[in-house]
Write a structure and sequence with these properties.
DNA-binding; disordered N terminus; globular; 3% strand; homodimer; 64% helix; Four Helix Bundle (Hemerythrin (Met), subunit A); 2 domains; mainly alpha
Chain lengths: 239, 239
Amino acid sequence: MSLPSEPVPQVLADALFRPVRAGNAFEETMERMLQAIRLGVVPPGGRLPPERELAARLGVSRVTLREALRALQEAGYVESRRGRYGGTFVRPTSADNLPLPPPGDLEDTLTLRLALETGAAEAAAARALTPQSRRHLRARLDDCTAAPLADYRRTDSRLHLAIAEATGAPSLTGAVADVRTRLNALLASIPLIPTNIEHSDDQHRAIIDAILAGDPVAARTAMAEHISGTASLLRGFLA
Amino acid sequence: MSLPSEPVPQVLADALFRPVRAGNAFEETMERMLQAIRLGVVPPGGRLPPERELAARLGVSRVTLREALRALQEAGYVESRRGRYGGTFVRPTSADNLPLPPPGDLEDTLTLRLALETGAAEAAAARALTPQSRRHLRARLDDCTAAPLADYRRTDSRLHLAIAEATGAPSLTGAVADVRTRLNALLASIPLIPTNIEHSDDQHRAIIDAILAGDPVAARTAMAEHISGTASLLRGFLA
DNA sequence: TCGCAATGGATCACAGTCGACCCATTGCCG
DNA sequence: CGGCAATGGGTCGACTGTGATCCATTGCGA
């Protein structure tokens, strides 16, 4: 395979020589928009930023962005209206059965998730949170406990993202969003069990309490426990 | 700025609407190659994979890859030889004064680094390591303590990457490599102080001992302490 | 000594992407 | 009622990136 005189570690080389881009600009743009809809960042009925602004933020030409939006429109996920106060809106009926990217490697995803989310919980707890952040965290927790079964995974995602957001670190927030998307792809293939949801709700409360109390160790511990539950569930169903 | 009826969280929206790609294919390819050289993944004098294979791994056309390699060659970082057993080789003299990407936000980088590297140390310690992995970790530790001042940061990077590699999770390894590159860009602007290096060596030993002993808690703690030292140093010089 | 395999070197036609520009629609507000 | 601002809709020419294909060089081994 490789010459013995080249002791290049395989895993590391694989990491550095990984693909420079996941797909073409159109595909990646569409994926991002779907991610925003799936994770509930733009709520059903909500309006996306104007095309010109969105294209600039995504670093993509408006032509390419519009191709992606047109594909989403044809698939029924969004709807565009012209004129002042027009825009592109998320169709309220499209919350379910969104296409998910193919699940990646299970252990890879779980290992990355554990590192990122426990790190985020600890960092959020270690930080002086604004009243606004505190309110946001509490609101997401309440959404989660109040959510009907069908909305559970979306509100759950939003809670976990809110924790990452509370760290104030954009890179960490983005990384958590990405790993969450991978996790959702895995979760999509296993059933929602009411008992697990009750467990999760308790754990969520413990996590948020620890963050709001400014207790990094407790926040990390609670998050680790929570994540471990989901990991076992996934391993049981998929391994 | 935005309508009050759209409670889209700013940090999260920023994370999801971040640029789809960091630059054009040529730039990103060149950046990856520099990263591989900087982090010592391909050692001085070492040979890069053949162009056809490398292009395929990076998901880029051979034409684009060759443009990047030609730029590196003109800048004196690599050298190509034709014929059987030819290839593209890293110039031994080019270890120093490699161009670094502009440093990003300090706190953002440090927060992400803390999460990823403490997570990696913990995951590595929690894992049944192969004898080969154990040897690799010890070897990188020895390189680090034995390194002359000029090589310290490269051997240090390699040690930290070896820890990430030991987790067996490619995504985590890639993420650590990326954040390390950002960290190196920051470190480049502050001096190397022998006292700090001695401290680091002790901490490195404690981390590796904990990982080899299979003690996740100790590994995390030791890594957290180590990283906190570097963080203070950076905040002192840059904040 | 010669053929062959493995490598880098080069070119071309085609598809993807971009930036710039202008048009079409809508509804607020003077 | 009419202008205007904000939005989506569409087109064009230039540049980027790709896949395929061939060429050039080198050195091992039959």
